[in-house]
Amino acid sequence: MSTKIQIGNVTIHRIVEQEGPFFNAAQFFPAITKELLDENRSWLRPRFLDEQDRPMLCIQSYIVKTPHHTIMIDSCVGNHKPRPTRPFWNMMNSDRYEKNLAGAGFGVNDIDFVMCTHLHTDHVGWNTRLENGRWVPTFPKARYVFSDRELEFWTRREKDDPAAAPWITDSVLPIVAAGRVDIVKSAHAFNDLMTLIPTPGHTIDHYSVHVGKSGTDAVVTGDMIHSPLQARYPELGMMADYDSKIAGESRRQLFGRFCDTSTLMCTAHFPSPSTARVVRHKDAFDFVDA
Ligand SMILES: [Zn+2]
How far is the CA of 103 from the centre of ligand 1 (A)? Predict the structure, then answer.
């Protein structure tokens, strides 16, 4: 299984924490109709949809190694974290993530930056780890790059109702308290090889990350897409969306910009190998193997 991608002088690694079916399609895509699923089941199975109509999902981080920095994008679910509404993530205690990190040649001290495309539970988990009963930054040398409006939204949500966002309590606020956050705009030019692209809708200020130079480049999409079905039907929202209409507009805009080019899409949740190119398909888009 390929977990290493070369883009010019940048290397991108995938660090997988989990892979499998977690939700059924009707739950995952609340607006999906029986007809739409019937029409698309044949090409989705078995790779993207299992026999019980559950989307196949990968939970993973990307690590982008430029000549100057090592940047982690999204930090999965993490260990020892109470997630009462998500049994398959509740109090997880697995060595798979750390093993895969080491297998790719990285230790926690190698990470210079952690970018969170958005502040959902499966994208912030390894921001922190439990040490003597306290949540401390997992990556001791890293700065953590959060969008200003995203952080503001979730900080308020947690303050109003801590039980509604336990991942903010244990995986985001301790990073803020440790003074390790770089608060940026979701269109932030990080350096000459990496620029954030605002892709709002899944959350209030979700960003994707453009890596490399035009012609030799990739987009780490985060959760602006969860299944290739949402390329064929960009308006199809998923259950955790903040605003599915805006998420659909973000898909049309980003895929319109990069379709029929060599740009590699590095998706957060497509099953392995998780990467593909986007092409135009009828009045929408499709993903094709790179
Ligand atoms: Zn999400």
Answer: 26
